[in-house]
Amino acid sequence: EVHLVESGGGLVQPGGSLRLSCAASEFTFGTYVMSWVRQAPGKGPEWVSAISSGGGITYYADSVKGRFTISRDNAKNTLYLQMNSLKPEDTAVYYCAAGPYLTAYASTYGYWGQGTQVTVSS
């Protein structure tokens, strides 16, 4: 069974930075496309970013492009999301997700972690 555990969330002031991590186990991490999806209170899931299985291809939502960087370390079975210049509208629960296809649609990722809360507020 795929097991994904996010960490690194917290409270940060606008303009600050956070680095999220997602530790994967019980599956062949290096063969899966990985993605970050977030969900703000009262809203539906919003796809944030995705990275190919080998790490050579990355995609970003327009709302985070230039501020967030997705990366992965297949030797450590870990996915990362470096978030800079954070804004209050980035406040959400952030989930890592795994799937077979590199897409911008949250529904195509079949395996999800439990999420980590990111709050951007002064």
What's the tally of helices?
0
End-to-end CA span: 40 Å
Low-confidence stretches: none
User: In total, how many beta strands?
Assistant: 11
Order of helices and strands: EEEEEEEEEEE
Biggest beta-sheet profile: 7 strands, mixed
What fraction strand? over 45%
The whole-angstrom Rg is 13 Å
Mean pLDDT over the full residue set: 96
Derived structural class: mainly beta
- Indicate the overall shape: globular
Describe this entry's structure for a reader:
By secondary structure, this protein is an all-beta fold. The chain has strands spanning 3-7, 10-12, 18-25, 33-39, 46-51, 58-60, 68-73, 78-83, 92-99, 111-112, 116-120. 0% of the residues lie in helices and 48% in strands. The N and C termini lie far apart (40 Å). The mean pLDDT is 96.
Could you name the key traits of this structure?
seven-stranded mixed β-sheet, four-stranded antiparallel β-sheet, globular, 0% helix, 122 residues, mainly beta
Summary of the model, kept short:
By secondary structure, the chain is an all-beta fold. It contains no helices and eleven strands. The strands form two sheets. Strands 2, 4, 5, 6, 9, 10 and 11 form a seven-stranded mixed β-sheet that branches. The protein has a four-stranded antiparallel β-sheet with strand order 1-3-8-7, with no helix packed on it.
